[in-house]
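Format notes (please read before filing issues)

Several people have asked whether sequences and structure tokens are stored in separate files. They are not. Every record keeps both together, in the order shown below: the sequence lines, then the token lines. Line labels are part of the format and must not be stripped during preprocessing.
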Amino acid sequence: MNHLTQIAAKLPEYGLDAMLITSEAGERYALGFHGEGLLLVTREGAHYTTDGRYIEAAREQVTGTEVCLVSAGSGHLAQARAYVEEKGLHNVGFESGSMTVDAHRRYTQELPCILTPAQHLLDRLRAAKDEEELDAMRRAQKVTDGAFKAVLDFIRPGLTEREIAARLVYELLSRGGEKVSFDPIVAAGANGSRPHAVPGDQVVDTGMFITMDFGCKVDGYCSDMTRTVALGQPSQEMEEVYGVVLAAQRAGINAARAGVTGREVDAAARRIIQEAGYGEYFSHSFGHSLGLEIHESPNASPSEGSVLPAGAVISAEPGIYLPGRFGVRIEDVLILRDGGCEDITNSPKDLIVL
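Then the structure lines:
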């Protein structure tokens, strides 16, 4: 899953001689491999350095670039400096969204070139996934759907949020997930009013909603889903709120397609919640992009005025959160196409009562 050619092709548009890539996500996108290395992509080629922990795997898996071993006497920066000098690189872009100030100071001191912020170059490329990337995300979502089905058989009164979260991690990894996309959220009862609640010692009991937000990575790419289930018969109000959130999600999904703005998608869902009288309790955006990272750009949010490209992958996750009482969130993952979207989440969305 190598994107060196795509990165190189964009360099002239940004007036760059090369792109310096140092982040885990950037390295994985460019090479289809992560070895805690340093990569320089030029208009004609590339140069990649990694250390002895990864060198064998890198030489087996990485194509389209030199793969060089660093040593005590010839580290990443020394080899990068020699490459910059050899190729006469003058204007080099860097990942301004992920590089620290200290790292930037170090690279500026060591490399004989101008370092130009160029995060947008990679962000624009990564926003539209190719079919190989989408296949990885479908497989990650399939694992996640399986984990959800399994955890439903595990949940019972007397368990804690933490125990359910641990079971989710087990189910994700045992089904083929490489790692979790993020620490799972499990929020029961009143804790459900906190969108990013941390699983704790709250015991689940009958009459509660339980919101679970979780995902895994396959080939480096993320899945993400949320389901709110009822343990025992919910109240009429709980059922009403759930129905509003589900209607809002469906409205957002119906509006989601390539060529519209993130603001328009968000508005389609937000309108349903506002008209039902719960507008002040929907405290986040309809969705975010995901891929190699769980939060990427562009987003389906009130502030997103940019057009969503074909191949973008966004979450669809409206919610209503009633402070101190309960919350509901339902989340799927969508692949945007011209004229519509593909929902790759296959778990049921009608209210499940355990």
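For reference, the curators noted about this record: Residues 131-154 form the longest helix (24 residues). The first strand starts at residue 18 and ends at 21.
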